[in-house]
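Incident log, support desk, overnight shift.

02:14 A customer reports that sequence design results differ from what the structure should imply. Their input is reproduced verbatim below. On-call engineer (initials T.W.) acknowledged and began investigating.
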């Protein structure tokens, strides 16, 4: 179950060396693909248009019999349906104008993408009801519930990106710009808490506000008397301080912990050992919260239809 490292402790030193060499080469080819110099200490050439940079989509692998091949060649496992994965779009391996994405396990991608650098973090996008059209996905497959992140993974991916970016800016002495209004910030941080008072958000999409106040709310409360409300970010966000930037697997860890708890909270088929863990680690309140956030918010088809009339 350890998805944080694909290390093979039993590997011979020469195999480990080969794997390492392969990761170095794949890292260089990803950097080239992004228009960055292979050597991170070199200055980027200004000749590369930044508009062509690939996006690193975080999504759920759709149904398929054998899963998708992970593009990290030394990775022995396919990416199975239902797993979180990274789709680099367009991929490195496009030819004759046909651009297909490259798929990676999240942990495998973190071996080659340096998320302690803004160039990489900036390219991360969650596949959600709001973004799927930019990922060039088949709409009927999306409407069948494929690819889109569940509410918890969506909120955690966005907050991971924000937290990592803030730490990078702090390290590099760059000011973090945030043009989010106080009312929106309040909704994003405090929805679900008994102390949250909804405020008017001028120009906001009512469908989106409704979702953020319900399915996507990060807090779960037992009411005004509750002094220990449950919070999604407190439970699962592993990026906390400058040292977190050295953790090459912080996104995989976050999503792994989240998925692990979703299984504990929602599965009717737990082994005795997992039942014990559920008993120890979860409360009725956390189970309620995780079940709510395990749902995938779907696109506003009705709204889109009405707007199109
Ligand atoms: Zn892999």
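02:41 Re-run completed on a clean worker. Output:
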């Amino acid at each position: 179950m350890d998805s944080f490292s694909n290390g093979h402790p039993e590997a011979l030193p020469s195999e480990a060396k080969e794997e390492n060499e392969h990761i170095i080469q794949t890292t260089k080819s990803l950097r080239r693909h992004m228009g960055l110099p292979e050597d991170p200490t070199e200055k980027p050439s200004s000749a590369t248009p930044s508009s062509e940079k690939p996006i690193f989509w975080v999504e759920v692998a759709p149904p398929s019999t054998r899963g998708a091949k992970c593009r990290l060649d030394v990775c022995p496992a396919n990416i199975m349906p239902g797993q979180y994965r990274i789709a680099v779009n367009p991929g490195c391996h496009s030819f004759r104008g046909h651009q297909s994405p490259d798929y990676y396990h999240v942990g495998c991608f973190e071996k080659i993408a340096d998320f302690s650098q803004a160039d990489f973090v900036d390219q991360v996008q969650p596949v959600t009801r709001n973004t799927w059209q930019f990922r060039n996905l088949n709409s009927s497959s999306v409407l069948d519930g494929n690819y889109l992140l569940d509410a918890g993974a969506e909120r955690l991916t966005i907050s991971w990106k924000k937290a990592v970016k803030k730490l990078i800016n702090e390290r590099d002495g760059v000011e973090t710009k945030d043009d989010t209004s106080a009312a929106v910030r309040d909704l994003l941080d405090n929805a679900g808490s008994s102390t949250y008072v909804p405020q008017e958000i001028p120009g906001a999409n009512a469908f989106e506000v409704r979702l953020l106040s319900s399915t996507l709310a990060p807090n779960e409360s037992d009411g005004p008397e509750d002094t220990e409300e449950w919070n999604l970010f407190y439970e699962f966000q592993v990026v906390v301080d400058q040292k977190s930037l050295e953790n090459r697997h912080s996104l995989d860890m976050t999503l792994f912990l989240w998925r692990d708890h979703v299984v504990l909270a929602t599965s009717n088929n737990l082994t005795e050992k997992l039942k014990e863990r559920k008993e120890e680690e979860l409360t009725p309140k956390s189970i309620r919260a995780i079940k709510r956030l395990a749902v995938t918010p779907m696109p506003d088809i009705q709204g889109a239809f009405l707007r199109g009339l």
